[in-house]
Amino acid sequence: MAHPKELDHFLAAVEGRAFKTARYATRNDDAALDIVQEAMIKLAQRYGDRPVEELGPLFMRILNNCTNDYFRRNKVRSFWVTLFSALPGQGDDDSDDPLESLQVEDGSAAGGNPEQQLEQAQILKAIEGEIEKLPARQRQAFLMRYWEELDVAETAAVMGCSEGSVKTHCSRATHTLSAALLAKGIKL
Q1: Kind and range of the H or E element at 167?
Q2: 73 φ/ψ angles, rounded to the nearest 5 degrees
Q3: How far is 85 from 104, CA to CA, in rounded Å?
Q4: Which of 79, 103, 121, 134 could form a disulfide with 139 if both were Cys (CB 3.0 to 4.6 A apart)?
Q5: How far apart are CA 80 and CA 188, in angstroms?
Q6: Confidence band (pLDDT; 50, 70, 90) for 110?
């Protein structure tokens, strides 16, 4: 079993290499620092009681998983940011619901033309309808992760499942919503 000082020594010895590994993968210093920090915290919390000789392979596995999580988060975020980037903001108030104010393709905001209002109402209804059609666990994971902005661990704790299950549910929900909206002619 690793003593706290041995764990500290291991982390100090590996941090430079871990940063370079994450930096090469992400090409972003800030992201690399976040990934290394997350990996170190997970190692200390979950595997700090393991023998010192097991820490190296465990840490590298955790670092790799954290790097993959970074890319998954960015892919999903960019997807939903792209989808909702056409939505005009009502102000700096965080209480605004982006689905309340869709923007039409010609760039004009809703409110003036009844035809535009009807089109936006139809798009909103289609998006909400597709979210409602998702299986319960996918919908729950999707809404917690992307509407409530909980992280994977928090979502897993709330849902009473593993972090891997949350990632799977979110991925499936994203792909299902994307395909369904595209099939209805809603360009992402």
Answers
A1: helix 163-183
A2: -60, -45
A3: 12
A4: 134
A5: 8
A6: very low
DSSP 114-159: HHHHHHHHHHHHHHHHHHHHS-HHHHHHHIIIIIS---HHHHHHHH
Residue with tokens 């289609």: 126
β-strand partners of 109:
103
Q: What is the DSSP letter of 109?
A: B
Tokens found for residue 135: 């299986």
Amino acid letter, 78? S
Length of the chain: 188
pLDDT in tens, 116-153: 888 888 877 887 788 889 998 998 888 878 877 778 98
pLDDT average, residue stretch 8-19: 91
